[in-house]
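Long-time lurker. I teach an intro course on protein structure, and each term I like to show students one example going from raw sequence to a predicted 3D structure in token notation. This year I'd like something fresh instead of my usual example. Would anyone be willing to generate the tokens for the chain below so I can use it in lecture? Attribution to the forum is fine with me.
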Amino acid sequence: MAKISKRKAAAIEKIEDGKLYTLDEAMALVKDVNLARFDASVDVHVRLGVDPRKADQALRGTVTLPNGTGKSKKVLVFCTSDKEEEAKAAGADYVGLDELIQKVTGGWTDFDVVVAMPSVMAKIGRLGRILGPRGLMPNPKTGTVTPNVGAAVSEVKGGKISFRVDKTGIIHSSVGRVSFEPKKLTENANELLSTLVKMKPSTAKGIYMKSITVATTMSPGIPVDAKSIK
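-- Reply from a regular --
Happy to contribute to a lecture. Here you go:
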């Protein structure tokens, strides 16, 4: 068994064994047990009672965090020339089509979100093998395939995030940074969790929210009581 540092041991001791914390308590505590010496991401991990192999239970969607993400996301937009100015005015970091397709084909992925017009999807379909595994492929369900590229970019820059359930039935999502006030972290997490509650598939059986854990990039996890979600 790997030996843990004194700092990590001290952080683990602050988390009461067997206790389920309210979301408010967890967000106050997560700042206290954070081990990173930088402004770490605060993440929520939700284990859902779904079977991702079934199409109607492979949840994916978007949510706009009321207090933003605390991170400036780099947005790439694939669009026709008549939409380039609209995308740039909304704050897109990279805008274009053929030249960018060539760049991504060569392995370039220095961006966080990709937005594309429906009319260019046939052209960028071959990028699926590069963008797909990284969760970057544009999708109508997440609002990233749209003719309104400017609005899509503005939403991403304003705190809109996308999420998807992994093959083990867990959703991992950042809801802010350690530097955020606990109240703002709680509001962001509540927005995500209430969205997941509304998305519960009618075919999902048994307990839907099996477990909720809050943690920073390097901190121990804090278990959250699902009943404390508003």
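Some talking points for your students: The mean pLDDT is 92. The longest helix spans residues 182-198.
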